[in-house]
Amino acid sequence: MAKDIEYGTDQYAPNKDYQDPPPAPLIDAEELGKWSFYRAIIAEFIATLLFLYITVLTVIGYKSQSDTKHNGDECGGVGILGIAWAFGGMIFVLVYCTAGISGGHINPAVTFGLFLARKISLARAVMYMIAQCLGAICGCGLVKAFQKSYYVRYGGGANELATGYSTGTGLAAEIIGTFVLVYTVFSATDPKRNARDSHVPVLAPLPIGFAVFMVHLATIPITGTGINPARSFGAAVIYGKDKAWDDQWIFWVGPLIGAAIAALYHQYILRAGAVKALGSFRSNA
Fold first, then answer.
1. Which domain holds residue 134?
2. Is residue 284 assigned to a domain?
3. What pLDDT does 217 receive?
4. What is the pTM of this model?
C-alpha cells in the first residue's frame, strides 16, 4: 500500500518536511513601514498598466483590421484566438516579472481570493486593488491618448454583455471564468505542492497564463471576458459610454464570487481545511 507522501515522506524528497505557513494577520501594522510593501504596490500598478495597454491595443487593432467599412478585411487581424493569446501571454509575462515582488496578482479578484485564504493582510489587499484599478485606468488612458479616433470608434476595449445573452448568462460566465483562474492561481502557487513535488519543476506563471487564455476563448463572445474587475473598470472609465457602465456590476460581482468560491474550494476541500479544523476541535474536546 502506498504511503502518505505528506510532511516529508515523499520518496523523491525525503528531507523536504512541510508545514503550512501561518495565516497572514488581518491588520499588519509593521508592513506599513516597510519599503517592500510600497514597492509591491508600485509593481502592481505598473503591471496592470502594461497589461491593459497591450491587451486593449490588441482588441482595437483587431477590430480596426477586420472592419470592412473602413477598408478592413473580415479575415484580417489576429482574431479572437489572437486576443486570447494577448491576454494570456501578458499575464504569463507580468506574473513572471512581478511574482517575486508583489506576488503578481494584477487582478482584484485574485487579490480578494488570496485575502479570503489569509495569504495577505487586509491593508495589502486594499492597496493592491486600488493600485490595480489606477493602473488599468492609466493603461487605457495611454491607448486613448495615442489612438483616440480608433479607441472611440471600436469601443475602447470595454467589457459589455453581448446582444442575445441574458444577464444571468453573463454573470455565470464571469463567475465560472474567474473560478478557473483563481483556482489555477491557488494550485500553481501552493507551497505544500511545491515542497511535496520538488522533483517536478513548476513554473507558476505558465498555468496561470494558460488559464486566462482558455477562459478568454470561451467567454469573449459572451462578455468580452472580464474575470478582472480592474480591467473592466479601467476600460469603462476611459471609454465612458452608458452600456459599459450599465453592465459594470457584472464584472465586479461575478469575479468576486468566483474568486471566493475558488478560495473556499481550495482551502477547505482540496487542502482539507475543514477536516483539519474538525480534527483539531475533537482533539481539544
1. 29-267
2. no
3. 96
4. 0.86
Long-range contacts of 242-248 (CB under 8 A, 24+ apart): 243/158, 243/160, 244/156, 244/158, 244/159, 244/160, 247/159, 247/160, 247/161, 247/170, 247/223
Number of structural domains the chain divides into: 1
Q: CA 192, CA 179: separation in Å to the nearest integer?
A: 21
Q: What is the pLDDT of residue 232?
A: 96
User: Cα separation of 73 and 203, whole Å?
Assistant: 38
| Inter-helix orientation angle 35-65/122-146, to 10° | 40
DSSP state of 184: H
Give Dmax over CA atoms of the chain in angstroms: 76
Q: Which residues of the chain have pLDDT under 50?
A: 1-15, 199-200, 274, 277-278, 280-281
DSSP 265: H
Residue 102 in contact with residue 12, Cβ under 8 Å?
A: no
